[in-house]
Amino acid sequence: xxxxxxxxxxxxxxxxxxxxxxxxxxxxxxxxxxxxxxxxxxxxxxxxxxxxxxxxxxxxxxxxxxxxxxxxxxxxxxxxxxxxxxxxxxxxxxxxxxxxxxxxxxxxxxxxxxxxxxxxxxxxxxxxxxxxxxxxxxxxxxxxxxxxxxxxxxxxxxxxxxxxxxxxxxxxxxxxxxxxxxxxxxxxxxxxxxxxxxxxxxxxxxxxxxxxxxxxxxxxxxxxxxxxxxxxxxxxxxxxxxxxxxxxxxxxxxxxxxxxxxxxxxxxxxxxxxxxxxxxxxxxxxxxxxxxxxxxxxxxxxxxxxx
Length: 307
Hints:
307 residues, mainly alpha, 0% strand, membrane
């Protein structure tokens, strides 16, 4: 995010602001998800993706002008940039396909496994060391995903598979973002929005339904909310440690349950709640072990033995 980092605040104040920004960003992501579910019940996924992407550029436009359009064309590691944009497009598309038929809480339960996927992919793609304790947490967390997925011929649905694929694609976005730390946030978000726009336009062929001014405005607003959520969370990570903020991301599941119940009458089943609880606990353990390896916990709180 291209906002100035507060220079005259105490460390404690920056930490508090970072936490508030993270919670605010997650709330806006949850609002984006609820609005998206509402819109795809009346319009095609492609149409929502296309108009949403246009709305995103309303926010990104001034930022692109400020940084200069040349920085969009001359980027580090173009192949990785392309792969990240493709993964982001796959994530967004799969998410909206999934929420057409699944409750928000069900879909978000898959996305709560993000730290589990990121830990595994970081080992495979970035060469980061993952000890036996975190591998155990990864396997336990994935068992929670399987409980949510319920992979049987009678219950497995295309929407559930899309939610799983989308959450894995999003973890690729995060891991590739680590490799592209030298690229500005504006450039990263712009290319992923371009990818989503192009796919949305292709999917819209033959599926366009003329929206009312209200519905068209809602789709544009959806893009603005999504972009603002990305920017809030990006700035939060500049003010507070990622290890402090990452567990707050689980508030998305709470908001998904609240919005799903309030606006769509969706009540999570016990199976979904049990699977989600396993995923969240496994993710929190991975965060805890990462804190230890980075030396952010006091020595007396560090268990003996390898991770």
